[in-house]
Amino acid sequence: MNAATEQSVRELIRSFMAKWLLDSVPDPDPATREARGDLAPFHDALVPGIRLFNERSFSTRLGNLHERVAKVLADAAHARAVQPLDLSGTLPVLTREFITQRVDQLEHRAALPDANYEREQIQNGFGGEVEAGTRIDLFIETHAGEEHYFEIKSAKPNKGQCVEMKQRLLTAFAIRRDRNAFWWWGVPYNPYGNAVYSHNYPPSFFDFPNEVMLGEPFWEFVGGTGTYDELQQIYEEIGVEFAPVIDGLRSS
Q: Is the pTM of this model over 0.70?
């Protein structure tokens, strides 16, 4: 990534950390925490200072940060990027019914995910059309004219999130029905490291080779070759910057 893009990414991450610390860390003063009902003596006995940090808030906000970082990177690497994208248009009634039935089949494991089959069925839709709309987390148009629609949720989504992502992505493609349009679940990292991704729900909904970009391939597509390693280094460096602040809170 170029210097300007790197600086923008750093500012996004620093702003995220500063706001998270401000909004999510309770007052370290024991009297204040007692008045608010924030004391948890057994938690603090096992891991001193753990109640100062709202881990769930951190993880939730970090997901949105990934989307914003991806937008900055895509702006520099591609023709156009929008985050989020509100897409509206029309699609055939039969296609709408296909999407509903298809997602239901996947949810109940009555069919295996097959992106090529789904693409063919949607492209061949015909008949009367109805209005439709959806919101996509990230849209990228490449310099070659390809359109890529990304949903970026938790790396370990629950069943409801998988249903929502699949519905949105198929609807986006059904509205466009363009041979140069593609849809993806974009996953910022593999929670299983170098092992095969094995969280229970997503493999029932997504054809991984054809509609999932996981970890390094996601960031390399969004920002170009080398982006994954560069981004990880930036996160680590900013983590070092904020370490004294966090250590100070833990010891308060």
A: yes
- Cα–Cα distances in Å, from 84 out to 14, 72, 146, 173, 215? 21, 12, 18, 16, 20
* Same domain flag for 138 and 183: yes
Domain membership of residue 189 as a residue range = 84-214
pLDDT digits (tens, 9 = 90+) for 66-84: 999 999 999 999 999 999 9
Choose among 196, 191, 178, 188: nearest CA to 222: 188
* 89 and 2 belong to one structural domain: no
